[in-house]
Amino acid sequence: MDTSVGADERAFRTHAERPDFQIAVMKGYWRVLRIAWPHVYISVKARDGTEWGFRFLVDGYPARPPNARPCAIDTGAPLPGSLWPKGSGRFAAVFNPNWNEAALYLPCDRLALPGHDQWVTQLPELLWPPVRGIIHYLEVVHDLLNSSGYCPPVRPAA
Predict the structure, then answer these.
(1) In which band, very low, low, confident or very high, does the pLDDT at 68 lie, cut at 50, 70 and 90?
(2) Distances (CA, A) of 96 to 82, 100, 111, 120
């Protein structure tokens, strides 16, 4: 047993090796970019093929919910709010840097849940489930990035 790796990192790596996580990797839904504990950098693919990077703070994993924020895929630097994914409806509520540039507005995010006790009864399916772990959070983000609420970035004409 590698004693240099803490229990939380071992738990995360075990979840990342699970078949449901790896099947999503093979389908191109997401991929781990790098691990620099207690941060994990993961990209999630949107419906237009754009990969969006996310920096997850996962100390205390899986008992403690993670915190995620959009980041640059190549460097892991936090994205300024002006560069976050854009959209409408529920998508815009979740990807709202005006609320907090350090977190997504989701019940499974450690920074978003406090103060939102109503989410426990209104959105129980989005709460953090330690048994499913990071797979749950990634599925929620992937679903949003592949929803009709997501607006692909405007790109210059070829």
Answers:
(1) very high
(2) 10, 7, 13, 21
Using alpha carbons, select from 136, 146, 61, 148 the residue that is nearest to residue 106: 136
Catalytic residue, candidates 108, 111, 126, 138: 108
- Count Cβ atoms below 10 Å from residue 127 Cβ, excluding itself: 14
Helix 134-145 to helix 19-26 angle (10° resolution) is 30
Tens digits of per-residue pLDDT, 46-56? 999 999 999 99
Burial 14-41 (b: 16+ CB within 10 A, else e): ebbeeeebeebeeeebbebbebeebbbb
Beta bridge partners of 71: 53, 78
Question: 71 catalytic, yes or no?
Answer: no
In this structure, what token pair is assigned to residue 42? 């993961």
